[in-house]
Amino acid sequence: METEFTPLASTIGGILIGTASVLLMLTLGRIMGATGILAGFFSPASREDFYWRAAILAGMVTGPLVYFALMGQMPAVEVPISTPMLLIGGFIVGIGVTYGSGCTSGHGVCGMARLSPRSISAVATFMLFTGLTVFVIRHVIGA
């Protein structure tokens, strides 16, 4: 498997995520952590809490439609593993998010920008285990 190098798309995506994070912090004083937003959507503290979470989740879901409107085609998505493996991976990520008190968007984008020691430690752990996982899958297992 080869990983495609996409500097322009990645830069644009990073700018959009950073801008959305800053705007959420400026307007509502909230951290843009995707798993926290999703969890709070299912058990909101108030009606207003539900609405802003619903708006962000709607934006995440409709993003490919915006891409289609701008580019004239849907973004290519290739998933080189089976659905059961995706479910297992999602379960493992859910465990990590629970024990790590957040996900890569909350810790990596917002927490590190605030120089949070907990977030810096969490991101270092994410990166270490991501590298180890890629090494094992590509070079040990040979997938």
Short note summarizing the structure:
76% of the residues lie in helices and 0% in strands.
Structure description:
It is a single chain. This protein is mostly helical. It has one domain. Helices cover 76% and strands 0% of the residues. The protein contains six helices and no strands. The protein has helices spanning 7-28, 34-42, 47-71, 83-99, 104-113, 117-141. Helix 5 (104-113) crosses helix 6. The longest helix has 25 residues, at 47-71. The chain is globular, with a radius of gyration of 17 Å. The mean pLDDT is 88.
What features would you highlight for this structure?
single chain, 143 residues, mainly alpha, 76% helix, globular
Structural class: mainly alpha
Radius of gyration equals: 17 Å
Q: Name the beta content range.
A: under 5%
Task: State mean pLDDT (0 to 100 scale).
Answer: 88
Helices and strands in order, then pairings?
Layout: H1 7-28, H2 34-42, H3 47-71, H4 83-99, H5 104-113, H6 117-141
